[in-house]
Amino acid sequence: MTKKEYIIPIFIPFLGCPHDCAFCNQIKITNYKDKMDPSKVIGEIEKNLEYFPDNDNIKEIAFFGGSFTGLDPDVMIGYLEIAKEYKEKGIIDRIRLSTRPDYINNSILDILKDYKVDIIELGIQSLTQKVLDANERGHSVEASYEASKMIKKYGFTLGHQIMPGLFNDTFDKTIETVIKSIKFGPDIVRIYPTLVIKDTKLEMLYNAGIYKPLTINEAVKVSAEAAMLYKFADINIIRIGLQPTENINEGADVVAGPFHPAFRQLVEAEIYKKYLEEIINKNHIENEFTIYTNNRNISLIAGNNKANKKYFYDRYKINLKFQNSYEDFILYNDKKLEFNIDKFIENYVRKNYGGDLLLDSKA
Ligand code: SF4
Predict the structure, then answer these.
(1) Closest Cα partner for 285 from 306, 325, 312?
(2) From its phi and psi, is residue 148 left (phi > 0), alpha (psi between -120 and 50) or beta?
(3) Would the pTM count as exceeding 0.70?
């Protein structure tokens, strides 16, 4: 099992962002004028460190919340100086930041290397130009490709963040984005289904009936498909669904859209549902069968509020039963059947997307 990692999130202000992406509420955010204040940043880091246990697990400072490399260079370097000092003293192990693809160039990457940044996450959102334009991102697909290539060349860990369900996005366009993203070769990825946030253009479009956000069900389906593709390509999915932050709270700032506090679990349950459906059909299963797996998986497979259990009963009149076990398998009519989700994902992607083709052309 991988060791827990400890993240110190520093939310940077969106000072001076010249962009006006349809889904971003920077109008509201720029209202609080928050210059870089070293004592505040150090205070935030120290506060977090106090809560961390004294062990050798990875500890990280992560700059979230805006386009880090779009900040005024002095402000950016001010943040980096603080983080670098903590890293050099061995108090933290890693520095992470997120930014826009068009705010990456050689001079910026030189600075980030000097300040010992480890991970750069790009908000690529979509890799279809029409969706980028419709959401007023103000950069091209090409910019995402170039930025990804440069980040990898410099030896940083590359992250991609994608947003299924943007204005004018479709299931197919999201999948096109995922496939292109895989070819750009990120190490890690975050899948953030689009939410309608207060004081955004998307909210106006939503109120005017022009934009329809994904339902939870649609968001789960497209995220499950995306997750299977990334998993096949061995890309670590570090988050699915938006983390409730100081700006994003259900009921407060989320006007509409597929917000769910346990979104990732819904997506994982959806993948299991696909797999179980295949097992049932292939083996002509009737009445009931028992899944032997470890306790941790059982609630995932059963689904949120036992949604998968209900689904298989309602649709096939089959009872899913569970047994805690170290070995994963299915017992049906005294016969042992294979139960291997990784193998299922591999076969699924090969069958539906020509898997090898996907990996061969990896940039
Ligand atoms: S999403 Fe990023 S680039 Fe777009 S307006 Fe918001 S802060 Fe600016």
Answers:
(1) 312
(2) alpha
(3) yes
DSSP result, 68-116:
GGGS-HHHHHHHHHHHHHHHHTTS--EEEEEE-GGG--HHHHHHHHHTT
Phi, psi of 54 (to 5 degrees): -85, 85
Q: How far apart are CA 160 and CA 151, in angstroms?
A: 11
pLDDT digits (tens, 9 = 90+) for 143-161: 999 999 999 999 999 999 9
Centre of ligand 1 from the C-alpha of residue 21, in Å: 6
Ligand 1 pocket test target in 15, 20, 24 with most atoms within 8 Å of CB: 24
- Residue 30 confidence (pLDDT) above 50: no
Beta bridge partners of residue 336, listed in sequence order: 331
Q: How far is the CA of 65 from the centre of ligand 1 (A)?
A: 9
Residue nearest to atom 6 of ligand 1 (CA): 24
Closest CA to 149 of 140, 158, 141, 136: 158
The answer for residues whose C-beta is within 8 angstroms of residue 147's C-beta and 6 or more apart is 101, 102, 104, 122
Cα–Cα distance, 212 to 22 (Å, whole number): 14
Residue 34 DSSP class: -
Tokens describing residue 263: 């979104």
List, in order, residues 6 or more apart from 216 with CB less than 8 Å away. 258, 260, 266
Q: How far is CA 176 from CA 64, 226, 291, in A?
A: 26, 10, 34
Pick from 193, 349, 176, 351: nearest CA to 266: 193
Given this model, what pLDDT does residue 360 score? 61
Task: With beta carbons less than 8 A apart as the criterion, state whether 96 and 63 touch.
Answer: yes
Category of 341 on φ-ψ map: left (φ > 0), alpha (ψ -120 to 50) or beta: alpha
Pocket of ligand 1 (CB under 6 A): 14, 17, 19-21, 24, 26, 66-67, 100
Provide the token pair at 122. Answer: 């790009």
pLDDT score at 243: 64
Q: From CA 356, how far away is CA 15, in angstroms rounded? A: 44
Q: Assign 27 a pLDDT band (cuts: 50, 70, 90).
A: very low
